[in-house]
Amino acid sequence: AGTEENSYERADAIARYLLERTGRRPELAVVLGSGLGGLGDSLTDRQVLPYAEIPGFPTSTVAGHQGNLIFGKAGDRDVVLMQGRFHAYEGYSVHQVTLPMRVFHLMGVRAVLLTNAAGGLNRDYAVGDVMLIRDHLNLPGLVGCNPLRGPNDERLGPRFPSTSDVYDKRMRDQLAEAFKQCNFPGATRLGVYVYQQGPCYESVAECRMLITMGADAVGMSTVPEAVVAHHAGLRVCAFSLITNMALLEWDSAEKANHEEVLQTGQLRADQLKSSVSHFLANFSLD
Ligand code: HPA
């Protein structure tokens, strides 16, 4: 719907290509955030497709983000994993950013797990915690950059979808259980993620504003994908790894930087890998 960039026809052609080339029928898709791409190693029976080899698919450009679609198994379950996602700040349109969700839907995928690195706004949070996303603030969406902007194709979802129920509680509870079972060393939080387009990290005044708006963590991804996946009827579950704390003081000597984000991802990589693998192998949708 909307544009040729994420039309039914384009998504359907890619979905058919992937089903035919891989012979796989994944039940769940996972999108790996900054510094979390190593989770791709945890699947067995892997088949790796670089984005560049998938006709009609965009390609990824940020350091620390790889660009592969990985098909494989977690336990007995078939999953597909995006190692590297597309961000609006790279110059992709919000339609390109969300195209993979429509592809997954048309491949028969029933649920998505979206992951990201985020800055902690809530002062109770600490670097290395995870935050299960209960709700979001779609800042660009509210002011005109919604991924569903444009003519609506009813084959992909309704014209006026709800967003009060994007994040599936059952999947979220099972994810929390997986972090617990695997003794994830950080705290497991439940909070509100605010999406800002980036690529700039927030100013001090912006961080203060976002807190008053009710946000617990801030990042540059996930929400467009969550909205489009939910629109298509996919079950959605998402979490943030808190990689840095947002700065709230003007005279601070520190500043947000991509290296810190990647380092925290590294620090937690193994524990995230085991928790997410446990979730993937054990979750049930009904
Ligand atoms: N702000 C926005 N995006 C981010 C941050 C942040 O502090 N950390 C990781 N992604």
From TrEMBL:
Subunit structure: Homotrimer.
EC number: 2.4.2.1
Keywords: Glycosyltransferase, Purine salvage, Transferase
Membership in a protein family: Belongs to the PNP/MTAP phosphorylase family.
Catalysed transformations (reactions): inosine + phosphate = alpha-D-ribose 1-phosphate + hypoxanthine; guanosine + phosphate = alpha-D-ribose 1-phosphate + guanine; 2'-deoxyinosine + phosphate = 2-deoxy-alpha-D-ribose 1-phosphate + hypoxanthine; 2'-deoxyguanosine + phosphate = 2-deoxy-alpha-D-ribose 1-phosphate + guanine
GO biological process: purine ribonucleoside salvage
Family matches, as SUPFAM superfamilies: Purine and uridine phosphorylases
NCBIfam families in alphabetical order: PNPH (TIGR01700), PNPH-PUNA-XAPA (TIGR01697), PRK08202.1 (NF006054)
One GO cellular component term noted in the UniProt record for this chain: cytoplasm
Pfam families linked: PNP_UDP_1
Pathway, per record: Purine metabolism; purine nucleoside salvage
Protein name (database record): Purine nucleoside phosphorylase
